[in-house]
Amino acid sequence: MAELTELLWIVAKIGAIIGPLIIAVAYMTYAERRILGWIQDRHGCNTVGPFGLLQPFADVFKLLLKEVTVPASANKFLFVVAPMLALMPALAAWAVIPFADGWVLADINAGLLYILAMTSLGVYGIILAGWASNSKYALLSTMRSGAQVISYEIAMGFALVGVLMTAGSLNLSDIVNAQAGAFWNWYWLPLLPLFVVYWISGVAETNRAPFDVAEGESEIVAGFHVEYSGSAFALFFLAEYMNMILISALATIMFFGGWYSPFTGIPVLGPMFDWVPGIVWFLLKTAFFLFCYVWFRGTFPRYRYDQIMRLGWKVLIPVTVVWLVVVAVFHITGFGPWY
Amino acid sequence: MLENYLPILVFIVIGLVIGTALLAVGYVLGPRKPSEGKLAAYECGFEAFEDSRMKFDVRYYLVAILFIIFDLEIAFLFPWAIVLDDIGLFGFAAMGIFLAILLLGFLYEWKKGALEWE
Description:
heterodimer; A: mainly alpha; 11 helices; B: mainly alpha; flat; NADH dehydrogenase (quinone) (non-electrogenic) activity (chain B); translocase (chain B)
């Protein structure tokens, strides 16, 4: 009986994470279209409901009511399994994210390792989808996406090693607590080059503009999910946006002090904002990074594929390796106020 | 220790259930009127010229092989970074030698043109 209540309790907590997450994805698509609209001097969606706020729901119902086609030449089993394989790791990675002090589902010591494992699994969904579709566009996109994601994973891994060295723990809550204090104590300042590399790799890992050659709607017409329709397409869409939110949340946790207030340590403002709960700061910071995603999409032209590979291998990896040695030397010698 | 991982297992199962449920809802609610043109692979309106599982550039393989080496390196760096305080200068020197050997290999690849795309 005790086990059963515990299990139900866990399921309830998971529901409390997944529910808001799906709503967040829905309104991320709305915000993206509105912000892109404003950047391009037009309105964006503003007709369904007040200010177009019901647009995401209209989209969800439309996607669920459309026909799901399976191409005749496709590998049927893998074609159906691929979207689930894309969604599962995008969801499961949220199990170890600390939303505020103590607000974490699974407080495991290998938290960051688990996150890296889950984000790496996401590429299987894309590769299987592209291969099983048996379409030229899909296959091209799969090759590009696979090579791009694994290239940038190296740079991202190196950048995170710097964070581990400074925090001395793989547990995400411990990493946030190690940054306690004013905003100049957060790791973005002592690890600034690593943060820049992390953020660029994060955008590339999620296949977003300006690194969206895997989708490249103007050349390979949406790439790996060109053959998907209806709810199968919706799964890929959910997975992509959940990954974006995850990368933003990780940027907050690893480099921007998680749930800590940015006004701590400032004479008048600090005590003024003391009453704000930690989760509000966490969500605000995450929302800022999500805004950056849309901002990049609205303002940067797409990279060419050879430029993407050059940036990943010849710029980001050397920069992170050098800065890793610098951080290690600082750490050993106890240089500066942070280490 | 291990019971901390139970919520993760439950989460993964629920993730799979949600994926299956959404697909099932799509199959049940959506119409199904297959036709030959609809089920053909999309190729800008043309009939597909040949099988799409064609030859592709060997450099994609090369990138994957290089990735394995570097990802292993990261797997070594993770535990090292955690305990750097305890192992001190000796650990730092050991990892320095390891990194130097790998960087030599990286420079060799670079000079050989394994990282070139044109």
